[in-house]
Structure formats: C-alpha cells, structure tokens
Amino acid sequence: MKYFILFFFILTAGITSLNAKLLNKTIATINHKMIYLNQLNQTKKEIKNSNLPDSLRDILYKGKNLLKNNRLLLDYLVTRQLLFNKIKKYNLSVSPSKVNSYVEKIRSNYNLTDRQFKKLLREKKINYSEYKKNIKNKLEINQFLRQFISPKVKISQTDIKNYSYKTKRRLPPLDTQYSLLHIVTKNKNFKNTNFTPWLKLTYSEMSKKMRSLIKKLNKTKNPQFIKINKEYHLVKIQSISKVESTAYKIALNKIKTILFNKKFKTTLQNWIKKEKKDSLIKIFL
Length: 285
Description:
With 285 residues, this protein is an alpha+beta fold.
C-alpha cells in the first residue's frame, strides 16, 4: 500500500510537472524574447472579458474571432510585443499616478465609490491589479500611436472629394459671408462719407431685418440705411466671401474622421509589417 501511495504521488507530481512545462512551452520568439503558451491562454481569458480595454485589438482585430484562431491570436501577441519593445526603447512608459488618474476617471463616470467599483470588477470576474495593468498597456500603446503613427496620416482635399464622389455623400453648400462698412448718425441728413468696418456676418446668422438690407444692397449696389436702437447706419458691402457653415464643418469632420481611421489602420499595418520584417521572429505553434 505504501508503494502504491508513493507511486501515485510520483505520478501526480509528474503530471503536474508536465502540465507546467506545457503551459510554459515556447510558442514564439521575437528577437530571442519568448512568448509562452500560458500567455496565449491568459490572453484568451482577457478577450472573453470585453470589459478589459485594448486599443490594438480595437484597431487591427475588430470583428475577428481571436478565440477560435490560435495563429491569429499569436499574431496579436507578436504585434503587441513589437509595440512594447518600441515603448521601452523610446521611454514611453506611463507612471502609476497616470494609471490611477485614468482609473479614477472611469470610476467617476460610473458614479461609484472605490469600494463599489472594485466590487463591480469582481462581479465581472476582473482582477483589479490586472485591470490596472491593462489600463497601463492601453495608455502606453495610445501614446506610441499618437507620437509615431498619427503624424504620418494625412488627409488631402482630393481624398475628401473622392470619398464624397464614391459614397455620394455631398458636403452641404458653403455659407456666404458679408463684410459690411457703415457710418453711424442720429438722422439721415449728414455729409460724412468716411465708412468704417462694422460687421462680418454669414447669411444664416442674419436677422430678417439684416437679410432685407442685404437684398437691397445687392440689388441697388448703393449704400442703404438701417435703423438700430435710435441710430441710423448707412451701410455698404465691403466684400463677399464663401465660408464653411456649421453644417458643412460637421459633415466635413465626419468624413475626415472616417478617412483618418481608415488611413491610420493602413499606416499602422504597414509599420507592423516593416517591424516584423526587420525583427527575428520564430513561430513554433
């Protein structure tokens, strides 16, 4: 019986040791830095819990099922490690105080006390320390992307025109802006002819009274009177120009955001492709 117990103990210890070795199995190397199987499994747990933030997955792997594709998941780990290598090289590490401030901001948005927030994380099966670590990774990756990828993305007027043409999303018309000159007087009988700058108004900003004045000015081409607060203003048009209306700016910013996100992703993919080419990467999965 003693021999059986001893044999069982040795067998169990052997299986445990074997499991540990399997979990610590090297599945890839990046410039001789190891990526282990247990990292792959841990990442799967992180992905299952969508409450853990990850900028890289949101940008490059959105809509892709990393949980069912180990090679794709490993590609994500390799890409992430390449970014971390650069973060370390350029000393872009985020301080604990910044991480804490960011976590505090999230907690405040939920309108929870520190205790309630930690309880919420536990209910979602999120380890608080692991959560802060993920926040740190996110902030560092974002910092790298802002400094080294975003500046490479340029949106031209041609890009905007091509997008509008292809998607048939025409921009709203530009607004007309009038630069007006005036002379102020208590009555209409005066000899002063020294006009001075008065207002710059777009047609959409004008009152009905002002629009009526502009119509007269456009029609007669001569200065016209308008009474405001017991004073007469003799008004003439100095210049007319086209400017971006509020509706135009909103539509333009939407198009720029769409184009930026698309070009940003392509720029990042090209950067990663070059980094992979320049690195010594071996895959054993």
